[in-house]
Amino acid sequence: MTLLKKFLLDYGLYIILGMSFLRLVMTALVGGAYREEEMAIATGSFVLILIFIFIQWDFKRVASAQAHDLRQLAYQLAESNTERAEKLALVNLDVAQDLKFKSDAKQARSDQREKQGIVTAAELKIITDSTQRVADSSLRSAEAASELAHKRMHSAEEAALIAEKANKAKSDFLANMSHEIRTPMNAVIGLTHILQTTRLDEKQKQCVDVLQSSSEALMQLINDLLDIDKMEAQDVDLENAPFSMTALLDQVVSVMSVKAKQQGVNLIIHYEPGLYKTYIGDANRIRQIVLNLVGNAVKFTNSGGSVSVFFANGGKGNGKKAITVTVTDTGIGIPEDKLESIFDRFVQADAAITRKYGGTGLGLSISQALARRMGGSISVTSVVGKGSSFVLHLSLPVEASDSESEVHYQKNIIYLDMQANAAMRPILLVEDYEPNVLVATSMFHNFGYHYEVARNGREALERFASGKYSAVLMDVEMPVMDGYETTRQIRAAEASGQAPPVAIIAMTAHAMKGDREKCIAAGMDDYIAKPFNPHQLQAALNKYFVKSAEV
To answer: Whole-structure pTM over 0.70, yes or no?
Structure first.
């Protein structure tokens, strides 16, 4: 059926045209009544059919052209689509390849990260294990260090305790030795002073002089040892009172002139013009320094030589007056390489010096320490075989009026009034050591005082009554009852009876730091350290007798 339709569509008009042409021919040949009309109709039909055939042909031509164009367009489209498809395929291939590459790279990275993760985890475990081991080691080290520190701290505490015990043992030893030596030395020195006031022949006087110089030398050694202990503890207390420097130097030269004369040494003193006479400071410590310097100069200068003391101004500053005391000798001198060490403890320039001249090597060390404690110093220059020169440098305030110094200095001079002393109430001496009882009572006798003696504190309390005694001289270390307790009970008895307190003066061989304060705390008024000389005893008594007279 489809073929028939296609045949009729393609050739139907041609068939109709052939039939029309045949009718026209037949009409023309046959003719008839209506021949012309039929010729016209046949011709019209033939023309119309030709027109339709032309239209159909033209339509087909146009359709064919359009179909060709469409085919060309389709072909072009197909080619374009093919190119695009190829390009797209290429792009897709590139994309696919790129995606595959990226996918592979991502997978590789993923694999790598996975591997790295495994490695990192392994490394992290290694690091963690190592860190743990280090931490454990550090902890053990810290524990060991802590234990070691604890042991060292314990050792340090033990060392400090041992050092403290050693220091206390040393201090106790020095205190005990000082007390045990001072007690008999008080008798030796005191009796020597007493013997010198008696009539002696030349030989006896010579023996007493030697005894006195020897005992004083031994006492100086004891004082040096105690001063060393005080220097180590930074325990040296300095006085601050007006004094006459010229009077002090005159005393030193007067004391040393005897020894200088014995050795055949010429001892002289010079004063620079325009000097102040009165200074404020510790006269006793300055005297100790100058005595040591002059004593050394005399000791190390042979017969025929000379020692000179020169007091001079050194300048002014900070409201103080700088002064110098120069001690120059013509003695044996000091080697240059020994100059720096002569101020060290227990050091002398040459071991042979100790054998020939004696001494401990403490004097210069103590003197330098004292000078520095007062803000000064000691310098030295020396030439072997020609002599030495020691210079004490000090800076001290000056007193406005020199007359005040003279009055202060005059107060230290003791004047005895035997008649007035004999009229006073007796002195109670509380002392258990018989040689010291002999010394003190002999001095009382020379001063003109009446006295009573108690051998211990209990006996002193039994003898004591308010207003009975002008003063009490109290030893500290005694059997039965010591001086501290005895003083406290006397003060309690005075308080209960509302009686005026009697002057109680400690007279003891306890001369270490704190001993004076301990005596004052017990209720005593003053303190004298053994050994003492008559001048010191009389000065202490006068101080309280003058107060009693004023009352």
So the answer is: no
